């Protein structure tokens, strides 16, 4: 079955950096675009970044452009989210996501990112 396991969250001061990882299994990872979403308290889940199957194209929410970098290693079935210049408004639970046609969306358990001094 599809499994997505996020790691790397934590508490960081404003202006700091974190690198999230998501290890995937149960599907053909190298053929699927992958995404990072986040959900802050009291807010809807929002798309943060996406990457194509080969990693050649990426897209970002306006709120994180220039600060976050999504990448993937298809040999390790893993995607990453490098988060720099973190702000308090980046505080959220971050989720790894894949959409598989005819099967739907799959989500990891999430990893908490807290940006606070």
Question: How is this structure best described in words?
Answer:
A hairpin with a 6-residue loop joins β5 and β6. Strands 2, 4, 5, 6, 9, 10 and 11 form a 7-stranded mixed beta sheet that branches. 0% of the residues lie in helices and 52% in strands. It is built from no helices and 11 strands. The protein has strands spanning 3-7, 10-12, 18-25, 34-39, 46-51, 58-60, 68-73, 78-83, 92-100, 104-107, 111-115. The chain is mainly beta. The model has no long low-confidence stretch (mean pLDDT 97).
The strand count comes to 11
Measured by DSSP, the beta-strand proportion falls in over 45%
| Low-confidence runs | none
Major pleated sheet: 7 strands, mixed
Rounded to an integer in angstroms, the radius of gyration calculated over CA atoms is 13 Å
Q: Residue-averaged pLDDT, rounded?
A: 97
Q: How does the overall form come out from the CA principal axes?
A: globular
The total of helices stands at 0
- H/E series, N to C? EEEEEEEEEEE
Q: Structural class, from secondary structure content? A: mainly beta
DSSP helix fraction = under 10%
For the terminal residues, how far apart are their CA atoms? Answer: 40 Å
């Amino acid at each position: 079955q599809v499994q997505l396991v996020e790691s790397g969250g934590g508490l960081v001061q404003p202006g700091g950096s974190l690198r999230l990882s998501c290890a995937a299994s149960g599907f053909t990872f190298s053929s699927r675009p992958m995404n990072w979403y986040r959900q802050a308290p009291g807010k809807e889940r929002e798309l943060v970044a996406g990457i194509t199957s080969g990693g050649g194209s990426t897209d970002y929410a306006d709120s994180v452009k220039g600060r976050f970098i999504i990448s993937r290693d298809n040999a390790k079935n893993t995607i990453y989210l490098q988060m720099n210049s973190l702000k308090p408004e980046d505080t959220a639970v971050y989720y790894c996501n894949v959409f598989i046609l005819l099967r739907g969306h799959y989500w990891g358990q999430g990893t908490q990112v807290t940006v606070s001094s």
